[in-house]
Amino acid sequence: INAEYGARQHRKMLRFLTSIPIPSEPLSIAATAFLGLVLLVTFLGNDAGTMSKSFSWQFRLAASLRTPILVFFVVPLSALLWLKRQIIITYRLRVRGLEASRATHADRVQPVIASIQRWNESGRTQKLRTARPNWACMSTKLSSNKDDAHRVPVSQLDHILDLNLEDMSVTVEPNVTMGMLTSFLLPKGYALQIQVEMESITVGGLVMGFGMETNSHTVGFFQESLMAYEVASHDGVIRDITKDSDPEYFYALPWNYGTLGFLLSAKIRIVPVKEYVRMKYIITSSPKELCDKMTKLSEADDAPTFLEATIYSKDKAVIQCGHFVDRPARGSAEANMINPINHFWKPFYYKWVETFIQKGGGEEVIPRQHYYHRFTRSIFWELDDMIPFANHPIYRCLWGWMGAPEVSLLKLFQGPVIRQNSFYAHVVQESIMPVRHLAEGVEKFDNWFGTYPLLVFPLRVYDRGPLSGFLHPRKDMLIPGRDYGLVVDLGAYGVPRPVRQGQMWDAIKNVREMEEWTRDIGGWQATYTDICCTHKEFRQMFDHSLVDKVQKRLGINAGAVPSIFSKVKPERGLVNLEEEIKAEGRTAVPE
Questions:
Q1: pLDDT digits (tens, 9 = 90+) for 98-137
Q2: From its phi and psi, is residue 492 left (phi > 0), alpha (psi between -120 and 50) or beta?
Q3: Which of 19, 412, 413, 550 is the most exposed, fewest CB within 10 Å of its CB?
């Protein structure tokens, strides 16, 4: 009986399958195949099933559809934008030349000055901001807080102006990106002194905000490579600023986020570089071992040129130490160690580094441009959360040649609902702490966020007394006999452990605890992330004395420009700190 029943069911299934029309036209076959591919990508990328039902249904639906939207729309669009930039930069440099860009610089500056003059003539009734939308900036903020502001056009300032090999500098406008500069400088054998990783990051963001790289333990933050600024101040005057001509203004500009004027160009120090980087991978098995080795390596007189660490669990990490080498001789042992890590068919760099844990360490030789942009393809390790199969060989070979989605487009494709929910479903946080607190920091990050890998960049931070600027290290952070101390940037990017387990994560509570701990040990929070502190707490963390002094000298009052805090805090309605501000009482600092 069971066999007969099974046979009937089998015949029914065959009749159903034969009733499905099979496309025979090439166009129909292609459309059906594409639909099947979309459904497969949606299924493989759907992680909304593990998400707590406390998140809105709109957010859970968006999480279900996120991967196909990225794969079929955002990634191809990002590739087209990359191609457009390459064509533009090639035309400007090889056809028009730097002289043409220098000759037209004043024309691109004129709209900035004219806009500031109109603002002054109208009585400064609105706060002064750039017209660049928030979604285009390298931060977690999405919605604009510029609706009531006088917006100054700056998008036209995207040209490389000069390369001077006598004083080893390159002069560029603020919207020039790191990718444009590596394409320009590396073929000539040069690089920025601090060549920041992500290709789409702009010089303006690094200059008026902040930046770092894996050689920052010997140089410092990106601001240490600046030689001169060209700034349009709020009175419409163009000012050329160096540390000799106006040291207060010069050292106040980093981290000021445009509150001291609009950047028109920057002169940046460059260095000669060799063709390859020899990289050594060192495995550590506890937070203390990682802390001890990073401290020793970063403070050594013969410190490696490049130094960073990637933490894969609370106990396991890989330290990466590198230095420049010449092209290995053909057939040599070193030539056999060459690994062009950024070819699109290669595994993501952070995944490749993880394999050295099982190997007990190792060494290899990496082409310099591959090393400089080693995390661009995977947006560090964020891409795996968005396209879970992005590191699979099939995806890498069929789709990986188009690169990663642009961060700006990722933000543009969000809406207020997604932004509101992702604040509690995804973490992007960095604590810049004294290097000897790294072990404690790893333990605390595991409790607060529970997401891996973690990024570790060691940095040198200088004590210049009253000219220290926004980051003024405490005396107990300094290396004895030197005017600087060593800190590490510990970064968490990904889905917090509770969210992965189908629970809710209290973003405000955990971030505020991180901020309080960071302040107590004399560290700083990365201001492009979502901050959850009050204005008073923000001013306790960052030294505003030099910025305040220069603003007063320039006649910039509170009504003319937003405070730095109001420019970096999350959008209105995302973080409610009414109780905390009320508790501060009369000591609370208004925005």
A1: 999 999 999 999 999 999 999 999 998 889 999 988 877 8
A2: beta
A3: 19
| Mean pLDDT over each residue of the chain, to the nearest integer | 91
The contacts of residue 521 (CB under 8 Å, 6+ apart) are 433, 434, 437
Highest mean pLDDT among 51-55, 454-458, 479-483: 454-458
What's the CA gap between 310 and 235, in Å, rounded? 46
- Tokens representing 424 are 């509690």
Q: Is the dihedral of CA 573, 574, 580, 581 positive or negative?
A: negative
Contacts of 162 (CB under 8 A, 6+ apart): 98, 102, 169, 170, 171
Backbone angles phi, psi at 5, to 5 degrees: -60, -45
Structure tokens at 310: 């990637």
Q: Is the per-residue pLDDT at 12 higher than 90? A: no
C-beta of residue 28 within 8 angstroms of C-beta of residue 36: no
**C-alpha 226 chain-centroid distance:** 20
- What number is the average pLDDT over the span 77-99? 91
Report pTM.
0.91
Task: Output the pLDDT for position 319.
Answer: 98
* Contact present, 432 and 489 (Cβ < 8 Å): yes
Amino acid 261: pLDDT: 95
Q: Quick one: 94 exposed, middle or buried, by C-beta within 10 A (0-12, 13-18, 19+)?
A: exposed
What one-character DSSP code corresponds to residue 589?
P
Query: Pick from 500, 428, 408, 417: which is nearest to 62 by CA?
Result: 417
Tokens 């349009």 correspond to what residue?
232
Say if CB 503 and CB 52 are below 8 A apart: yes
Q: Is 463 exposed, middle or buried (0-12, 13-18, 19+ CB in 10 A)?
A: middle
Cis ω for the linkage preceding 453 (within 30 of 0): yes
Classify 118 as helix, strand or coil. helix
Tokens of 304: 């490696």
**What is the mean pLDDT of the segment spanning 35-58?**
76
Share above pLDDT 90 across residues of the chain, in percent, rounded to a whole number: 73
Half-sphere exposure of 302 (CA within 13 A, CB side): 0
Mapped onto helix, strand or coil, the DSSP state of residue 460 is strand
Residues in the chain: 591
Number of Cβ within a 10 Å radius of residue 151: 18
Distance (Å, rounded) from C-alpha 317 to C-alpha 166? Answer: 42
- Per-residue pLDDT, averaged over 134-154, amounts to 81
Contacts 24+ apart (CB under 8 A), 500-506: 500/50, 501/50, 502/50, 502/51, 502/52, 503/52, 504/52, 504/54, 504/424, 505/424, 505/425, 505/427, 506/424
Side chain identity, residue 498: P
Q: What is the 3-state secondary structure (H, E, C) of 195-211?
A: CCCCCCCEHHHHHHCCC
**pLDDT score, position 17:** 55
**CA–CA dist 141, 567 (Å, integer):** 10
Q: What is the longest distance spanned by two Cα atoms in the chain?
A: 98
Residue 142 has pLDDT above 80, yes or no: no
**Would strands 150-152 and 128-130 be described as parallel, antiparallel, or unpaired?**
parallel
Strand partners, 279: 322, 364
